[in-house]
Write a structure and sequence with these properties.
Distance between the termini: 12 Å
Order of helices and strands: EEHEEEEEEHH
Structural class: alpha+beta
């Protein structure tokens, strides 16, 4: 899922996964990167720069998720293998580097305590 609001997650493949039709779920090709090609603008995935045909689509989970239920060690190659845990866990420098593409629901006052 992708967090798209203060208490809202988008589950784009729920029906396909339940039906055992994972091949119909194009979202399975999205992955995390600390230097992503894409960003979310509400429910829309937008390119941040040109993407070559066949190139993997990536977005920064720290820019959509407040606090991840299942943190993981990053393997994107653009960082030192940092643990990806969500926006709530970024320091001031990490937030500043992502300011241009962080989701609006993470910028609002009182952003803490989200699901």
């Amino acid at each position: 899922s992708v967090q798209v609001g203060e208490r809202e997650h988008l589950h784009p493949c729920r029906a396909a996964l339940a039906a055992g039709s994972v091949d119909r779920c194009r979202w399975r090709f999205l992955n995390h990167s600390c230097d992503p090609h894409c960003r979310f603008a509400g429910l829309v995935l937008r390119a941040r720069r040109d993407i070559a045909p066949g190139e993997q689509l990536t977005f920064d989970y720290n820019c959509t998720e407040w606090s991840m239920a299942s943190p993981f060690r990053c393997g994107c190659g653009a960082c030192d293998g940092a643990t990806v845990r969500g926006y709530a866990h970024l320091d001031a420098d990490g937030r500043a580097r992502r300011a241009a593409h962080v989701a609006p629901h993470l910028r609002s006052p009182g952003a803490g305590g989200r699901a």
